[in-house]
Amino acid sequence: MTLVLAADPTLADFGKDPLWITIIKAVMLFAFLMLGILFGVWFERKLIARMQHRYGPNRAGKFGLLQSVADGLKMGLKEDLFPRTVDKVLYLLAPVIMVIPAFLAFSIVPFAPMVNLFGVQTPLQLVDLPVAVLFMLAMGAVSVYGVVLAGWSSRSPYALLGGLRSAAQVVSYEIAMGLSFVAVFIFAGTLSTSEIVKAQADTWYAVLLIPSFLIYVVCMFGEAARIPFDLPEGEGELVGGFQTEYSSSLKFALIMMGEYLHTFTASGIAVTLFLGGWRAPLPMDWTWAHTGWMPVLWFFIKFVLTFCFIVWVRASLPRVRYDQLMSLGWKVLIPVNLAWILLVAAVRNVVVNEDNRMIGVALGVVIVVGALAIWMRFDTVNQRRKEARKAEVDAEFEQLSNEPAAGGFPVPPLDLPHYHGVQHKEIPSGTN
Fold it and tell me: Do both 74 and 188 map to the same domain?
């Protein structure tokens, strides 16, 4: 049975708020994101430290809570240096372009249904649109211009290479990310975020559309340039990437803020489109769990758990190579997405009915199991090919090593009783 509450907002509920309510909601959203950045940096450093058996920040304030504030003040008060060859206008504009779209992208995320805000019944969401998810994708595409301009305006080969890498990476993974949303649109019948949350009253799309959710999780790291897909920076080979020429000043702080905001936006979209949004966990279908300000708690719990998962991946996985990144995006994620969309569109008329909802879940499980079986089969074949190639290389190396005429050096067998003319003898126990 679908749980539809009277407080569930629709598109008709937006655009009716007084101006002062809209301003209050915008200020609340801004405060949430700014405080989220401060505590998010501290929380990420603490969580990774605990994973690595360290304390993490513990000097500035109680439990190190003021460490992010101290870092922000330090970067804001540092001398603002300009390399002589930079394009100053674009050099200053690039960090701003990275930050503003990230703020705008979060404006479509619903925190709760209709709530009483200073005596006015209003949805706890800044704005909703018939194409709200496309607006989020557009903001993500605009923000990459900041990265490209930061690399180009710096007039540095390292920064330029980092900007080009970022452009290629974001384009590749935005395609796969957009395709992962198509199955959600087919089932929900809308691109409005509030309507998509309403459509997940019975089953979260993370369960019903498992392949789409898993693909989005991978694309989330690529879009936000987080480890293991932080190739735009790539300290090992790019000396910091597109931000090489940005000193530790306020501009550098804006770049870091933009990257964290993209991580928050990716987490918020994952909660909204796949994890039921502000709805309580599935077994809790009581009315009190979806009324008043309680949905804010459920959204915040899901949001924090998603962010913890991102941090956990950063602490666990190494950075991949750039060719592996692009190969995964173009050769795996996009073809799998297209095949999954065709299958979802073909069976939608069956699973759209409530009585046959479990058929869709079972179908998704079967598809995932089949995909894993195919992947394991290909992985086994590739492993055998690698082993055969390694055996060929070893045999060729051994042949060259034993033939001085072929340019190699004779290698003595390892079981000789003498080594460099010294006889190996047993040393009696207790002898120094």
Answer: yes
